[in-house]
């Protein structure tokens, strides 16, 4: 049975009748467009998903798939000329895709926390970190200066900054990359947002600290009941941290499902390729199969399914029929494991 891409089957499927919780975030048929001299590009093309309270959704795909654009659309930080050209974004049931810049600014920090690849983009280099934290807390939680400073210290302790009381007056450059990202996580969570968007939060860090930062993000969001969109090109990070995974290819959502199902039984051949190119873990055999070819440019998408030129299962239908919608979690005419 074909499932409309506007209905996220996995989310609806887990709720019992009458017990459906309002999703923290609903992205409905989201379209982001970029007008160019050679036509209009669609880096995000009718993407839909729901994010349940406390859920961690990993968004994965190769560079240029549209992962960051989707996240940036949610937080109202698309760089012009990219803009939302269709669909809806609801945060706790309230539409946020049509808010003014001023209203959106109030939501960022308070209702949506952000963790980017480079911690320095989130931190002001000229202000001690304790002050940055307490200012955010004071503004968003309406508490006194003294109370905000107390909570800033608690936030730093929570993210594992050693001797936190002495570090309140340190500047961002006085921390290592990993410690700085811990501070950013404290900043993202200090106003108790219901959603955190973490875009490649560990990509710029030493491999040795990447796992610690992912574990920290996961633990804190679990403890606070915060939902997370975790954008990454790394399936290993998804396996480590996410509850569900959304796979993007050339602006489209091509597969979505619980992480364990998608990793053990990927249905879209692109997901299968991504899983096959993961380095082996301690239980697996060496895999590291690369997907041949490269993702097409948005101004040169092939006819039919955008993945067909790289797909080992491609048939005539894939080359000519309109791109398939999500069916049982995968947008593919001939999913892996189902004989044509
Ligand atoms: N101003 C622009 N003009 C034309 N194309 C653009 C512009 N900005 C972004 N794009 C294209 O939009 C697409 C989506 O980019 P996006 O950053 O969301 O991808 P991504 O999956 O997050 O990749 P990465 O991991 O490299 O950040 C890319 O193909 C990119 O080249």
Provide an overview of this structure.
The chain is an alpha/beta fold. It has a domain at 112-192. The protein contains 13 helices and 10 strands. The protein has helices spanning 9-14, 67-74, 101-110, 119-122, 129-141, 145-158, 164-167, 177-189, 207-224, 235-241, 259-264, 269-276, 316-320; strands at residues 25-36, 39-51, 56-60, 83-91, 94-95, 112-115, 195-199, 227-232, 244-249, 252-258. The strands form 2 sheets. The protein has a 6-stranded mixed sheet, sandwiched between helices. A 4-stranded antiparallel sheet has the order 2-1-4-5. Helix 6 crosses helix 8 (177-189) and helix 8 (177-189) packs parallel to helix 9 (207-224). The radius of gyration is 21 Å and the shape is globular. The two termini are 16 Å apart. Adenosine-5'-triphosphate is lined by residues 34, 36, 41, 43, 61, 63-69, 82, 233, 298. Adenosine-5'-triphosphate binds at residues 34, 36, 41, 43, 61, 63-69, 82, 233, 298. GO terms for molecular function: ATP binding. Its main location: membrane.
- Classification by helices and strands: alpha/beta
Put simply, the count of helices is 13
Low-confidence stretches: 1-16
Helix content: 25-40%
Overall geometry comes to globular
Main pleated sheet: 6 strands, mixed
Radius of gyration: 21 Å
Distance between the termini: 16 Å
- Which molecules are bound in this entry? adenosine-5'-triphosphate
Number of strands: 10
Proportion of β residues? 15-25%
Which series of helices and strands comes N to C? HEEEHEEHEHHHHHEHEHEEHHH
Mean pLDDT: 91
Side by side, the strands of the main sheet go 6-7-8-3-9-10
Region (Disordered): 1-22
Keywords: ATP-binding, Cell membrane, Membrane, Nucleotide-binding, Transport
GO molecular function: ATP binding
Domain ABC transporter: 25-275
